[in-house]
Amino acid sequence: MKQQKSGSGEFKKEIGLFGGMSVICGIMIGSGIFYLGSYVLQRSGYSLGLALICWLLGGLVSLLGGLCFAELGASDPKAGGQLVYLSKAYHPVLGFMYGFTQWILASSGSIAAIAVAIPTALVDFIPGLTQLHIKLIAIALIVLLTLFNLRGVKGASNLQTFFMVAKLLPIFIIMIGALVLGNQTPDLSPVPASAPDGSPLTAGSVFGMIAFATVASLWAYEGWTNLNAVAEEIKNVKRNLPLAIILGIGGVAIFYALFNYSLMRVIPLDEAKSLIESGSLYLGTTVAERLFGVAGKVIVLIGMLLAMFNCLNGMVLAFSRIYYAMSAEKIFFKKLGTLNKNGVPAASLISQMIISIILVCLRNLDQLTSLVVFCGMLFNCLAVTAVFVYRRKYPDLERPYKVWLYPVSVIVTVILFVGLMINNLMEDPVTALTGLIVPVIGIFFYLYFKKKYGGEEKEHA
């Protein structure tokens, strides 16, 4: 992909190893850490041992996918990441379908959802905070971070690193406090008492529970694909990108398992079951209040706000590079493929801001973003499979990092993704299939832009 420039603007390599880890971990670790463990525990038949296995399995699935992205990113370090791999491995129309879905709904919708979630967390603390206030605050946050990112990737990366460290402090306070002060001795047996429906356990029912609980854990790992989008801005990318992915995903997996274990050091399993069944999913909040009183609730709130703000900045930073890559391939608005004097895709950032603000103003935002879950997994699966295609189409491409245990590891990753897609399709077929409408519509836009700008058939990496 040939880089487009605006004046003297060009990408600046300002993201180091820790900055890269902050991007990937910052997007992954959000407010969900305080409540997603409830879903995993519930789906594991309230077996903490099995739940922890599912947390580690979710991390393994994400890490296997991350290893594939590490090879692709180190060998083809282009802005846009996943879009580039889909375009080169298969056809530019597939890359465009992915990018168009991200631009019009998935990425912009994620930004909008997180921006709305931040002021929503303050409702119990600020009396009189209405839906109008929440939307105005969300819009202000999106505008603020967009303007900050327009000033350059170095500042945005430093901000990401700062809030990454800051948000971990309150979470570590809760986790260490629970490990040290908790008086429970959790049963780590991986065998639940019965299946979720109360029937006797069978090998099939246990396997189904593991799969269902692992899907829940994957919600917490969402975001591991995004570092590749800023590959052109990473220092020593051939070393730092794979390292950031491996250390980031691996560290988060261990952190999630340890955090959820620590909660059970304070809350007896039977009580945790009662809380979850009654709808009290925020076990992290319960533990913090039990350990630190009223101050515990404040610690959780601070942790959630910092985590969501960190996630929001990471999304604004990474997602905008996808639309730049689409334009650079001459299959999208020409202006979005230019860089300002600070070396950032200003027009892409601004267009992303506008769409995100529009989505903030719409109702049923969660329903909109849920439409793209299935096709998101489909695109991720195709990107992982692109490792095979790249090795066949571009055998002479320099590969400073290669996927461990190739090809077995890639095959296992693809099988896992296919299994998860089948599970998602069986659980909610209407939403899954409806979500494919957005990328299909993208085909018509691709044909329009290709005719207008010519497009680029990528035959060489």
UniProtKB/TrEMBL annotation:
Source superkingdom: Bacteria
Localisation per UniProt entry: Membrane
Transmembrane segments: 15-36, 48-72, 93-120, 132-150, 162-181, 201-221, 241-259, 298-324, 344-365, 371-391, 403-423, 429-449
Organism: Claveliimonas monacensis
Pfam family membership, one: AA_permease_2
Membrane-related topology note: Multi-pass membrane protein
Alphabetized Gene3D superfamilies for the sequence: Amino acid/polyamine transporter I
Keywords: Membrane, Transmembrane, Transmembrane helix
Entry keyword annotation includes ATP-binding: no
Main location: membrane
Name of protein: Amino acid permease
